[in-house]
Amino acid sequence: MINHLTRRFFLRTSAAAAAGIMSLNPPCSAIEPIGRTRPSHLKLSVAAYSYRDHLTGKKTPHMTMYDFVDRAADMGLDAVEPTSYYFAPEVTPNQLNKFKQYAFELGLDISGTAIGNNFCLPSGPERDRQIAHTKAWIDRAAELDAPVIRIFAGSVPKGDDETAAVGRAIAGIKEVLPYAATKGIMLALENHGGITATPDQLLRLVQSIDAPNFGVNLDTGNFRTEDPYGDLARIAPYAVNVQVKTEISRRGQKKENADLAKLISILREAKYSGYVVLEHEAAEDPITSIPKHIKALRSLIAG
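Given the sequence above, the corresponding structure tokens read:
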């Protein structure tokens, strides 16, 4: 099997050669779009975050993470995304392995996991905790056989400068990437507001980091711009994981139902291959609405 570094280098140089633009100059120190050449291959997963109020007991029926896996299996999904928030802070490797085995026995992969972090913080104990938390979940993702972790960049601290915050976020990501590489884990930076609220802001970070285990977690509901679909299309070539929302929000307008067919078309146009993870945030009850959205996505992917 080609390792990540060789594969990324092969894809980049092959794409350049095909375009007739190869040169003897060394590659620039910025990530390039993933050089996918094969047709898009999409698989379906669902994020535990979709059932957050049920997993935390805020709404009934109360669910455990095992109940979450059962629901995914009942819908015939390919995988689950067990969001880190719903494991106990002191979760052990044995407990993670038990969860992984349970999913495996129901025919489900672990498509990835997701953490909350803020790398915009200045040097100090809190920033150190953010780095340590990320590394801890890199270890836990490895236990789960989760190939990718969704990460955040963060937001500008009050009274601080965005340029300085961006620099600290880039430094934070660069600090944890080598450790993730030792565990075979990819880190996927999400367009999640703050300093990644627009495609230009996100690309400023993405193009400042060159690592074979780094890419974008494309969240289809998080660009609150004039043209969310166009902005998602700009970012899709960098995606290594995709979380699909059932709504979008254009700047200055009310939320509207997402055009799922258009979203799938954007992914196919970018030749994205991998998991499409439903992350349900709409007001409708996820217990009844998620199966309907999964059915719609399955039909679009099959088509």
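Residues 6 and 212 are 9 Å apart (CA to CA). Try to locate this feature in the token string yourself.
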